[in-house]
Design goal:
The protein has 281 residues and is mainly alpha-helical. It has eleven helices and two strands; from the N terminus they run ααααααααααββα. The chain has a two-stranded antiparallel ribbon. Helix 5 runs antiparallel to helix 8 (179-200), helix 8 runs parallel beside helix 10 (241-254) and helix 9 packs across helix 10 (241-254). The model is unreliable at 1-29 (pLDDT under 50).
């Protein structure tokens, strides 16, 4: 299931969101050329992370299918069983909220409303909501005005090609400093993510694609920055825009005739194949 289809979906050249996290660059920039390690380690991390994401996704998907189908005698029983399990989980959650004596009445009402809303969401919407929650936690951490916290965030949630930290290729894709950046990207993720999730077929496939898209887009930005920007002028980047453009590109390949609008410009819409004409030829 991961053959040509994944190659076609991952092939677009992903864009990466970039946000300056340092002060104004000095007037005299270093002209030193990047060391080979600046390319090698991020390349190995991005490639290895992509392989691991799809490998774990396939293993988790196969395990869940064996478990679920093993409990059902037919596909009809399989889908009915999933609905029954979801209803049981919903009832257990509502019961746990009701039996929590420490919560005030208004808090219980709010928790019940959230639980009821959560169980009306599709699997794709819940997966995307989980990704949004992770981004929300990281965004909240950026808002803590404490030196130690800010040091951790700048070190581990901003990717700088000269830092030598390859893990930030991934962590920076869940990182947003400003409310506008966070809000725009989460709106895009909610708009496109659930539909792509449904098209790919399962949570495991979608998360594998999203993770690999974040890694590859970060790697492309990393390499282009090293090749085009003087070493002394390089600043860090962060944001989910690279992964979101990958999701939009994959969605455009799968559904080229779907029409989308432009935020804040009512009445203007166009088919996705107009937005990604090169990839749809």
């Amino acid at each position: 299931m991961l053959g040509r289809r994944w190659t076609a979906l991952i092939s677009p050249l992903f864009a990466s969101s970039s946000a300056s996290t340092s002060a104004a660059a000095p007037r005299a920039f270093s002209t030193a050329r990047p060391a080979a390690a600046h390319y090698l380690r991020p390349t190995l991390f991005a490639f290895g992370g992509t392989v691991a994401a799809f490998g774990l996704g396939v293993a988790a998907y196969d395990a869940s299918q064996v478990k679920d189908v093993g409990r059902a005698g037919s596909m009809r029983d399989f889908f009915m069983r999933r609905q029954i399990d979801r209803a049981i989980d919903h009832d257990r959650t509502l019961k746990a909220i009701a039996e929590t004596g420490a919560l005030p009445h208004d808090a219980k009402k709010l928790a019940t409303m959230v639980a009821n809303r959560w169980y009306t969401l599709s699997e794709g919407q819940r997966t995307v909501a989980g990704l949004m929650a992770v981004n929300g936690v990281v965004f909240a951490a950026w808002q803590v005005p404490r030196g130690r916290i800010m040091g951790i965030m700048n070190r581990w949630f901003v990717h700088n090609p000269t830092s030598g930290r390859s893990v930030t290729l991934l962590t920076s894709a869940f990182s947003h400093q400003t409310a506008l950046h966070f809000g725009m990207n989460m709106f895009g993720l909610w708009t496109v993510g659930a539909g792509l999730h449904s098209a790919l077929g399962s949570r495991h496939e979608f998360l594998a694609f999203y993770t690999s898209a974040a890694l590859v887009s970060g790697w492309v930005s990393h390499v282009l920055t090293l090749r085009t920007v003087a070493m002394g002028a390089i600043v860090g980047s962060l944001g989910a825009s690279g992964a979101l453009f990958a999701c939009l590109g994959a969605f455009a390949i799968l559904y080229p005739d779907v029409r989308v609008g432009i935020m804040f410009i009512p009445g203007v819409d166009f088919a996705l194949k107009v937005f990604y004409p090169y990839f749809l030829q």
